[in-house]
Amino acid sequence: MKKVLVTGGTVFVSRYIAEYCITKGYDVYVLNRNSREQSKGVKLIQADRFNIGERLRGHSFDFVIDTAYSAEGINCLLDALGHYGTYIFISSSAVYPEYAVQPFKEDLTTAANKYWGKYGTDKIEAEKALLSRDPSAYILRPPYLYGPMNNVYREAFVFDCALNGRSFYLPKDGGMKLQFFHVQDLCRFIDVLLLKKPQQHIFNVGNLEAVSVRRWVEMCYAAVGKEAEIVNVYDDIDQRKYFSFYDYEYYLDVSKQHELMPGEKDLVEGLKEAFAWYQGNSDQVNKKPFFEFIDRTL
Fold first, then answer.
1. Given this model, what pLDDT does residue 273 score?
2. Candidates 1.10.760.10, 3.40.50.10260, 3.40.50.720, 3.90.1150.200; correct CATH number of 3-146+181-204?
3. Whole-structure pTM value
4. Which residues of the chain have pLDDT under 70?
5. What's the pLDDT score for residue 143?
6. In what helix (H) or strand (E) does residue 292 lie, and over which residues does it extend?
7. Using CA atoms, how far apart are residues 10 and 217, in angstroms rounded to an integer?
8. What is the C-alpha to C-alpha distance for residues 152 and 20, in angstroms, rounded to an integer?
9. CA neighbours within 13 Å on the CB side: how many for 220?
10. What torsion do the CA atoms of 43, 46, 51, 55 make, to the nearest 10 degrees?
11. Which of 6, 115, 201, 231 keeps 20 to 30 A from 27, CA to CA?
């Protein structure tokens, strides 16, 4: 039985990964402060990652899956770890500067992105810290992740609009395209890395095709069983006050991922899965006051 350490393990990506690893029959340990409910079947190592102490001593892991947000977080974990096999770091596409030529490729020089700010630069420093200490580690850079357990108010916001019979206020003509990746496909690609151990160690991951935000909204409504009534907003208003995404269109080159793992979850089916989860877990999503702004301003 393979032994895996997942940092976090209580919210969205890390929680989904931990539960996915349980289904694979792995011996799954999670490292967190025990401030949230733990997934069934995991073994808790209770600690703050910035003050782990000796809690990992005596453990040996076949692989580690980490979602750290800073170089300090990486270094604290590496300092505390004993023996481990493969280290996989979930980074972000926010490491690419918005002004670079698209689609962004893995060999593009990382730099600050004006939309993502400190989140992106901290991920850059985390990547550097990891590779300086473990050049054999794998780094994954996803676009917008979605699916069951998503606590970010993205597809859930559209679901709420559909459930409440509301029109959807869409920036401009809705032509801006976004790239998504289902969290299960992220887990499937981790399986591929562990099995094939490719020579390349940094991968963009995501769906092959981007989708317009208008089409995405329509698919979210369809997942609820409703038809979207769109209201286009052409006023010079910060769209983040009433919409889930920045006014920023970007596209990753994910050809290397798809060479290793052909196929991806259909976005329509993935959104249906996300809605099925949301119906029983709406309290787990960090909601924003979009409705209040829309009703007051638009």
1. 98
2. 3.40.50.720
3. 0.97
4. none
5. 98
6. helix 290-297
7. 28
8. 20
9. 26
10. -50
11. 201
